[in-house]
Amino acid sequence: METNEVSIHQVKIYDFVRVHGGWVTTKDIASGCAVARRTAHAHAHKFVHLGIFDQAEVFPEHRYRLSSQAQNRNKAIILRLDAAREIFGLTA
């Protein structure tokens, strides 16, 4: 079940991948966002499920990037992430 709640970790992970612009691993995300690797994996996987991230299933670790279709696939969650960014006082 999808929730309307957005965590600060989700905003940080979304922003990191968006700004990076290319393929990143969960290790990259965890390091860049100062979150646990399993947190990075869980949120990246959720964003894949929501159509916001693309996933490349490669060895030894999957990679993620912002989908070029993210705005079309799930504009509502992106708007919630943008609103949460402002509430949390994070820069875009």
Task: State the gist of this model.
The protein has one domain (8-87): Orthogonal Bundle (Arc Repressor Mutant, subunit A).
Arithmetic mean pLDDT = 94
Q: Could you give the distance between the termini?
A: 28 Å
- CATH superfamily, by name, is Winged helix-like DNA-binding domain superfamily/Winged helix DNA-binding domain
Give me the CATH fold name: Arc Repressor Mutant, subunit A
Kindly name the structural category. mainly alpha
Task: Summarize the main sheet.
Answer: 3 strands, antiparallel
Strand content: 5-15%
Strands side by side in the biggest sheet: 1-3-2
What does this structure look like?
The mean pLDDT is 94. This protein has a single domain, classed as Winged helix-like DNA-binding domain superfamily/Winged helix DNA-binding domain (Arc Repressor Mutant, subunit A, Orthogonal Bundle). 26% of the residues are buried. A three-stranded antiparallel beta sheet has the order 1-3-2. It has helices at residues 8-20, 26-33, 37-49, 70-73, 75-88, and strands spanning 24-25, 53-56, 63-66. The radius of gyration is 12 Å and the shape is globular. Helix 1 crosses helix 2, helix 1 (8-20) packs across helix 3 and helix 2 crosses helix 3 (37-49). Helices cover 57% and strands 11% of the residues. The protein starts with 7 loop residues before the first helix and ends with a helix.
